[in-house]
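Researcher: Hi, I'm a grad student and pretty new to this. My advisor asked me to get structures for two proteins we've been looking at. I'm not sure of the right format, so I'll just paste the first sequence and hope you can take it from there.
Model: That works fine. Here's the first sequence with its structure tokens right after it:
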Amino acid sequence: MIIKKFIKNGPLQNNNYVIIDEESREAVLIDCSEPTDDIMDYIKEQGADLKYILLTHVHPDHIQGVNYYRKKYGVSVFLHKDDFPLLSQLGQYFAGAESVSVDKLFDDDAEFSIGNEKIKVIHTPGHTEGSVCYLIDNMLFSGDTLFYETHGRTDLPFSDDAKMRSSLKKLFTLDDNIVVYPGHRKDTTIGAEKVRY
């Protein structure tokens, strides 16, 4: 697997990830904060075939590039069903948030793939009701659930501190050596983070 991190969206420093299966050259984009040439240039340089966009949750700083990439590549955008209510009300809670289209809502049992690589969905409500992490082999793309030395905010609309704590406990049952690629901040591991809780 090839993993390339792109840091976007000004001071919020969002992490967007292009993941490519080396054999098939199929690729997925996890979160897309804004449309930028460097992501598109990288996909082209790698000879990759972008198959779809997976969203970890629908806060505006993670999705403002969705409409652009969706149209440019003709790909589907996937979102956990429990975040759809927030998606339809973004303008109420976040000034200037653009309307974003998704193609398919999935549930906790969803599974995706690129080439022969399986992408497992782990539902981790707390930051939002439909927050998810994506597990690929020993790599966890954690969105705004788990960060280096902290976790996602729970003081926002549709967030819940008790659910966040439960979601973190779920993640901490994973292998300590799993590398965590969060939606903000630097990479970490499950083992390094669970000792803090």
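Researcher: Oh nice, that was easy. Here's the second one.
Model: And its structure:
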Amino acid sequence: MEKSIHNPAITYQKTDLHVHTCASGHGTTDSITDLAREAAKRQMEVLGISDHGPASPGSASLSYFRSLFLCEPKRFGVYLRYGAEANILDKDGGLDIPDEILARLDYCIVSMHRPIYASGSAAENTQAYIRAMRHPNVKIIGHCDDSRFPVDYRELAKAALSFGVTPELNNVSLLPDSYRQDCRVNAIRLLQACESLSCPIVLSSDSHGRAHIGDVAAAASLAAEAGFPRQLIVSEP
């Protein structure tokens, strides 16, 4: 029988909307069922499946995202939300999942990844994020903390408030072995901008597979250290 990889030293978040299955093409062989089973063992309540869009090497085709609405809404007592982490393709905020598919998902995270998005200036990258927010069902801005994709955090937070989108404080970005650049400094800048505008944030694990679902310890620690208001940390946008 499969053993849980639950770590009793970690307090797992009840809701985690940024997790990946084997459909993302890297980092895990775990399925939706594997993640849901582990989430139940960790006494989580809501699990959001957000696999990488098809522009990511090895990721699922559009047919996968098109069929997600047919999946079970609850497994092992855990409510499931079916979304996607869509890739921002260009400075116009184009995404690699068509609007008609996004409209049928529960939510969408938009992110910048190499080599899919060619980074520009902070102003250009910020505008790309803002334009991406106009797509239907975009609810979360994923890991906008990487100096390889500089942004204007105040303008980003202002736009997020306007569009009803929530910036993410990404746990993986804050780990010692993160491949992203200057994430701690940038995350603090994001928190400061969001606090000044009363813009909510969401904490996410960005777990590839079941090992780290619900684990946002690094993100929660930084938010507390920065004195970010707890009432502005939401579980679901």
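Researcher: Is there anything I should tell my advisor about the second?
Model: You could mention this: The chain has a mean pLDDT of 96.
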